[in-house]
């Protein structure tokens, strides 16, 4: 087996629209660059490519266009290419950028894969996992004492009863031991990269993880790629503690950096403790599944469009809106052009007993848990916003519980069973090759 790595700077131009909130923001500066990180894995004549980007998201049509272009330029089959947007809220939705940048971006993705191909070296692989020394990922959906469900109900809120689920604070490490070149660290973790706010580009905590791992192992020439997992119902807010400082410049060092350090420290603690994994066959699959659309609220489209106009202008709405109401309003406002069914990609790339499963949206923690429970013999990394980003992918329970994610999603309660079932089928087909 061979593995190669590359990194390409794709920081968008200043003035670009930053994504992730209910009001307009334009980038004014750069805290740290926005990168593509690529790993290509080769076994015999088969190759897969994993490309992670420090974007908030990428539209399905754009992702498909880029995958096909990368395939044409490199010879790697399109179904063997997994492209993830790591979901930094101090970045862009890749499609909401100038025309010239979108055209350039297609070439940059191809360049990243070509450079990783040029970097291929004979490799063996080891795997390891452990929990972080302190939790940095927290379930953000809470049952309140009055029976309601709220997302991020506030720091030290005495009305919180309990979180709806358990966050996964496990760091998963895939280490590529390369002959004659620096090793590659593929680090898997999952929580929302939304620690900063403000108007400055940043890769958020994934950027810190990469930099800290590479700095610590600098003499060995190690390169690091971060894969962000099923983070739709988690973030970094520990609501049992006081609210962190609001100033993004302070947050960068007092919130974002410590999260990156904690994850990186766990990966570094695993560095020489991995279990060797035998070389095995390569698999790659991308399937677009048709999911029924959530059409609740169709008679409120004009009202919701006006609410979104006021919010974008930072003007008050006719009635106060909590987070769930904000999400519902945003969903209804874009319903005018919504099809009865939407396409959601489910992607798997695998090599031997290691698999990366990506969903085209923001899946809840459950989406990862069910795969690992079904196939404990595999090391499974999961990836959000993979080969497209179609919004929140809640658990079945969340649709009846309520809250922001269920109110804002374009999808219905059948979604988890369909997507998780497809992911399991892909893993089963890969296992048949082993």
Question: Could you provide a short overview of the structure?
Answer:
It is built from ten helices and 24 strands.
Structure description:
This protein has 434 residues and is α+β, with helices and mostly antiparallel strands. The protein is 30% helix and 29% strand. The protein has helices at 60-74, 99-118, 204-216, 248-269, 301-312, 323-333, 366-374, 396-401, 404-408, 415-433, and strands spanning 2-9, 17-18, 25-26, 29-30, 35-43, 46-53, 81-85, 121-131, 138-139, 141-144, 149-151, 160-163, 170-178, 184-189, 200-201, 223-228, 234-235, 275-277, 282-292, 341-351, 354-359, 362-363, 379-383, 392-393. The strands form 7 sheets. Strands 1, 5, 6, 7, 8, 13, 14, 16 and 18 form a 9-stranded mixed sheet that branches. The chain has a 4-stranded mixed sheet with strand order 19-20-21-23, covered by helices on one side. It is globular and about 65 Å long. The two termini are 15 Å apart. The model has no long low-confidence stretch (mean pLDDT 96).
